[in-house]
Amino acid sequence: MIEQGFKGSKTYKLWLLFLAGVILAAVATYRYQLSEGLTITGMSRDISWGFYVANFTFFVGVAASAVMLVIPYYLHHYEKFGPVIVLGEWLAVAAVIMSGLFIMADMGQPQRFLNILLHPTPGSMLFWDMLVLTGYLFLNLIIAWKTTGIIQSKAPVPQWLRNLTYLSIPWAVAIHTVTAFLYSGLPGRHLWLTAIMAPRFLASAFASGPALLILLLKIQEVTKNYKFDPKVYNTLGKIVLYGMIVNIFFYLMEFFTAFYSNIPSHKETLTYLFFGLEGHQKMVPWAWASALLGISGIMILGLSIARSMQKGLVVSALLIFFATYIDKGLILVIGGFIPSPMGTLTEYSITLPEFIIASGIWAIGLLIISVTFQMTLNLKKDNERS
Amino acid sequence: MITLYNKKLTFIFLSVFLLVFTMPFWKNMIKGSEIPAPVLQTTEKECVESREYMRSNHMKLLHEWRDDVVRKNNREYTNSQGITFNKSLTGTCLGCHQNKQQFCDSCHEAATVRLYCFDCHNDPQIAEKSSNEGFHEKQ
Amino acid sequence: MKNNKLLKEKNVTAELFSESDILEKKVSRKEFIKLGAIGTILATAGSRVFSLHATEEQHITSKAAVRWGMVIDPKKCKEGCTDCITSCHEAHNVPDHRDKKNEVKWIWKENQQTLFPEKVSPYKKNGNNLPYITLCNHCDSPSCVRVCPTQATWKRNEDGIVMMDYHRCIGCRFCMAACPYGSRSFNYKNPKSGLEKINSSYPTRTIGVVEKCNFCSERISDNKEPLCVVNCKEKAIVFGNLNDPESEIRQILEKYPSERRKVELGTGPAVFYLS
Asked: In terms of residue numbers, what domain contains C203?
């Protein structure tokens, strides 16, 4: 079945080769990181989590967003999602694998990662995160593999598969809630110490995941590989729209509490991020970029849905994807460390080796997405021809 | 029944796989391997446990020791003969087997099992001996 | 004389770890072990319950026989002196990479503005201008211990020291995110590249693990006080058993007003600063 994932146009095979090249460069850079240490990244004593953990957080969200396709299709029988449901599940698989790789890349002693299982610590949210993410990976892997197999065999969907799919609904919510708990239970980090961290995470996940899926589906159309029903785009767009509106609403709630209460520890990080603090302004352009991308994205998206304008829909998906990526990635994770517990304003910037390793992990994700999507669509096309 | 979809590719990949998989054997046949001969160079007659036991179990012993010392604050080890020792890699083990290169490395390099003990623990021959003055000696 | 008393107190407590006497009562070894086991379970359960409900109440929550703590007098700390820092870092092979990004430190100096900003009046910008020794607070309810996924850091039941197991640490740095005091450092580089001289009687750490002050647990096993305490010529740091009402540290804390960092966070620090 998987060999179908390697069948395609010359451009497609060149694309796979390109991804392999990026991965190789990243592997070489990772070996350099293993020997020199994480000093090759932009992290420091004050900012001890950076680009890797930011990406981890973002892609756990993308993985969780598969639930936004499963619920309409399996619970509400929205048949239009039929062709894309399994693609959403493969996207979830790729996203979880990327998250896991980002965590491994971030570890100081990665070969010891099994210590988490050898010495279980139920009080630690990282322990639960490892469990739920691994479980979610296997769950979605089984579901996606079997569902893809059914496309080929045209057998009826077995009840155990339905049951597993139902299980993936609360599980998807769980993975991102536990990931939010990594942040929202830490007493010294006031940007993160908020009850709506998990709701915010979920809202931004439900905006970013389907947005990415829209883009991936459009790429299939543009490369003349497969054409999807415009109504699918529209519905996905609606999910992105509501998710993003809720996300921005939550964000504004944070602003209100911080600035109306006027409490310095609540205000400081948001002030640093959006307005700069004591001359430190590195994050300000990023923060406003994220805000503007998000707001313009919502406006264009709303219009495009109302007037069924697919081009606008795709553009807005791109805007919203980057808005949530910058927000959840750079701003949230790195912002949490500024100011430091001593009140110092250390800043952070990504280094080249860090970026290459991250690119390698994105390439691995894109490779998984490309091969699984190609496999699925090739089987679908075979079906439709016969 | 196995259906060969692509005879050429299958043969190539299978050969490469077998070559890589059997590398330990043919590489050593070409190079010629020697049995490592660690030099004991001890100051004592008896080790913490017998030679046979240490050969098979020193890694397990060291794992137990490190958990006992670090996590349980228990430094006393009573061996099978009833003699007590201080659980210390640098102090007890290397206190007798003083040459790490000739003792530890001779086997570990042959077996390609990387020793990471000395990333942290001190090889008494390399680390400068602390002088009798110095802050940590006061009181 | 003061030190002798502390040593004696230490001898008593050391014996608690090995065999017989509890306070003045002679108990058999078997009974002691039984009592010790029950006591440890109760202490763990008790401290867990209390730490879950820790609020602004500054209760002494540890039920163990020993809870090590420190009281620091900033007025006694001499400007420009770094004896405590040098002695600690040299003995423990704490590397100096000479840049802030890769900095590793177990103990250092801050000022009142950074540790107790609420105490600094806007009309006296630099506060009391005194140096404040900063180190791991060995909290009663440490958030770093709560988050560690491998128990590479844990709080010792018998004396409350927050320990590090460098063999187990996977370098995830969750503890660094959780610590509200900035007490922990990560080895972004090979520590040996920042060490000109190695004290051979203490190990170094390896690349990729988190490290911090350990209250000189290796010296405490030998009934000795921590190096920073011992090497301060001005005796600005006093170390002792917070759970012993007769100890010097308790006398000081009962006599003079003191404060701890960020108490409102519920961590229950064991390091006090005289006001």
From this structure: 67-274
Number of domains in chain B: 1
Looking at chain C, which subunits does it touch, using at least 3 CB pairs closer than 8 Å as the criterion? A, B
Count B/C contacts: CB-CB distance under 8 Å. Answer: 63
| C143:A116 CB<8 A | no
Query: Would C8 be classed as within a structural domain?
Result: no
Single-letter code of the amino acid located at C95: P
Q: Is residue C227 part of a domain?
A: yes
Tell me if C157 is assigned to some domain.
yes
Mutation choice for C interface testing from B135, B137, B138 by most C CBs within 10 A: B135
**What ipTM, to 2 d.p.?**
0.94
Helices (H), A9-81: 10-36, 51-64, 67-70
Q: Which pLDDT band holds residue A370 (cuts at 50, 70, 90)? A: very high
Q: What are phi and psi of C102, to 5 degrees?
A: -100, 15
DSSP C262: T
Out of C87, C201, C203, whose CB is closest to B120?
A: C203
Confidence at residue B27, expressed as pLDDT on a 0 to 100 scale: 87
**Distance from C229 to chain A by nearest Cα, in Å?**
23
Closest-CA residue of C relative to A188 is C180
Q: Which CATH architecture has domain A2-385?
A: Up-down Bundle (1.20)
Q: Which residues contact A352 (CB under 8 A, 6 or more apart)?
A: none
Question: Considering CB atoms only, which of A49, A106, A187 is closest to C143?
Answer: A187
Q: Which of residues 7-66 of B touch C (CB under 8 A)?
A: 66
| Residue A30 CA to its chain's centroid (Å) | 22
What are the structural domain ranges in chain A? 2-385
Task: List the single residue in B70, B116, B129 with the smallest CB-CB distance to C165.
Answer: B70
Are C151 and A343 inside 8 Å of each other by CB? no
**Max intra-chain CA distance, chain B:** 81
**What is the span of the domain harbouring residue B71?**
51-125
Across all residues in chain A, what is the average pLDDT? 95
Question: Which residue in this structure is represented by tokens 């701003």?
Answer: A331
Residues B97, B104: Cα–Cα separation, whole Å: 9
Q: Whole-prediction pTM value? A: 0.87
> Rounded to whole angstroms, how far apart are CA atoms A268 and A342?
13
In a domain, B44, yes or no: no
Other beta carbons less than 10 A from residue B61's beta carbon = 17
- B136: which chain C residues are within 8 Å (Cβ-Cβ)? 87, 90-91, 199, 201-202, 227
Calculate the alpha carbon distances from A136 to A61, A121, A167, A176 in Å. Answer: 12, 20, 10, 11
pLDDT at C52: 41
A178's enclosing H/E stretch is helix A159-184
Partners of A280 in beta bridges: A277
pLDDT given for residue B31 in this prediction: 81
Q: Please say whether the beta carbons of A310 and A230 come within 8 A.
A: yes
Is C155 within a domain?
A: yes
pLDDT one-digit tens code per residue, A201-241:
999 999 999 999 999 999 999 998 899 999 999 999 999 99
Q: Name every chain C residue with its beta carbon within 8 A of the beta carbon of A44.
A: 100-103, 188
Interface mutation vs chain C, best among B63, B73, B115, most C CBs within 10 Å = B73
Residue B105 lies in a domain: yes
Q: Is residue C59 pLDDT above 60, yes or no?
A: no
